[in-house]
Design a protein that fits this description.
- The chain is an alpha/beta fold and 369 residues long.
- It has one domain: Vaccinia Virus protein VP39 (Rossmann fold, 3-Layer(aba) Sandwich), CATH 3.40.50.
- It contains ten helices and seven strands.
- Strands 3-2-1-4-5-7-6 form a seven-stranded mixed β-sheet, sandwiched between helices.
- The protein is globular, with a radius of gyration of 21 Å.
Length: 369
């Protein structure tokens, strides 16, 4: 299964939509704002910008976060040009995602966005949608000055071919992701698929970036050595437990569960760095990580979960907004409410062990040559 409809987030503005349940991703954008400002500032200062500057958000999805990135870039360009005493360029901003993304939801928000933007920025900007996979070519050579991508690159291009047996069934059965019982060769398959896809991504972006062009990439990762209670294996393992319970009760077909895999891999910092350095196309100007609570509405820094039931419900809604298309396309829509109700309870029990946190990687890359 290649990237397609199942990889898109839940569209619209309803209760289970990505637009309604994307505060986790919003917090990541705000957390990386200083890096974005630094990178855009350097592009404006060191690059002889033409009359037009081209920027793109890869994997933009839909909802308020999409235009949040656009507004931050516009404001930073305006500030830098004001400091330098130079007229701002025309800013062409492309919003990229798969063709099944809810682009209409974005376009309906543009009038509100224009009213919200401070007229004092004086940056002429133009926003366009660009459907297509960022694992392929998207732009003409050397035509883009800045790429941004947040919470996208951990998604793999496809279900791993190496997990298919000669009869077409999936191996490592019973595990929808890397599990405690997954053998090392399965982990290596996931890791290699990530490395291949990320390497292709870097190759295409290098071709598309203009001289002096840069990228800010943010995605979920894993700690180098320790398996924390916030690791992605638990996020998907708890969903897997709910599916197994429904199989035992005859609510889900066992065969369907055994041929379902989540096409995701959360790499370590070292794995990402290795791919970048092996490709030799980019310099790493910034490399860091931060932690983000599973519960997107928990902004505290302590290790105590105040209300594990509410936090469980919050996390389940967040994951449903991301995973529902994957699940409904495979199992059908009929199981969704029951599945995510059980999932919320599983998360609530897990959070009794302590506060679970995502490990988020951030890379700022500069084009070589």
């Amino acid at each position: 299964m290649r990237a397609g409809k199942a990889h898109s987030m839940v569209g619209g503005g309803g209760e289970t939509s990505y637009a309604t349940n994307s505060r986790l991703q919003e917090k990541a954008i705000l957390e990386t704002k200083p890096i974005l400002e630094e990178v855009i500032g350097e592009i404006c200062r060191r690059t002889l910008l033409p009359k037009s500057m081209v920027a793109a958000d890869l994997g933009c999805s839909s909802g308020p976060n999409t235009l949040l990135v656009v507004s931050e870039v516009i404001k930073t360009v305006a500030d830098q040009c004001k400091k330098a005493g130079r007229p701002p360029p025309d800013l062409q901003f492309f919003l990229n995602d798969l063709p099944t993304n809810d682009f209409n939801n974005i376009f309906r928000s543009l009038e509100w966005f224009e009213q919200k933007m401070d007229k004092k920025t004086f940056v002429p900007y133009y926003i366009a949608g660009l459907p297509g996979s960022f694992y392929g070519r998207l732009f003409p050579p050397r035509s883009v000055h800045f790429f941004h991508s947040s919470y996208c690159l951990m998604w793999l291009r496809q279900i791993l071919e190496g997990l298919k047996s000669k009869t077409g069934t999936l191996l490592d059965e019973g595990n929808i992701y890397i599990g405690e019982t997954s053998p090392p060769w399965v982990v290596n398959l996931y890791a290699q698929e990530f490395k291949n896809g990320f390497s292709n991504f870097l190759n295409f972006r290098h071709e598309e970036l203009a001289s002096g062009g840069q990228m800010v990439l943010t995605f979920l990762g894993s700690e180098e050595k320790n398996l924390s209670i916030g690791d992605e294996r638990y996020i998907w393992g708890l969903l897997q437990d709910a599916l197994h319970d429904m199989v035992s009760e005859g609510l889900v077909e066992r065969e369907k569960l055994y041929c379902f895999k989540v096409p995701m891999y959360t790499p370590s910092m070292a794995e990402v760095k290795e791919v970048i350095q092996k490709g030799g196309l980019f310099d790493i100007s910034r490399m860091q990580y931060f932690e983000s609570n599973w519960d997107p509405f928990d902004d505290s820094c302590d290790d105590f979960v105040l209300d594990n039931l509410q936090s469980g419900a919050n996390v389940a809604k967040c994951i449903r907004a991301v995973a529902e298309p994957l699940i409904s396309s495979h199992f059908g829509e009929g199981i969704l409410d029951e599945l995510f109700s059980r999932y919320a309870n599983n998360i609530a029990r897990h959070l009794l062990k302590g506060k679970a946190k995502y490990h988020v990687l951030v890379f700022a890359l500069k084009r070589k040559g």
